[in-house]
Amino acid sequence: MINKNSTKEEVLAAVKQDGRVLMFASEAMRNDREVVMAAVRNWGHGLGYASDELRGDRDVVMAAVKQEWASLAFASDITNLDKEVVLEAVKQNGYALQYTSPAMKDDEDVVMTALTQSWEAVEYASNRIKRNIIQNWLKK
Question: Can you give the pTM of this predicted structure?
Answer without folding.
Answer: 0.90
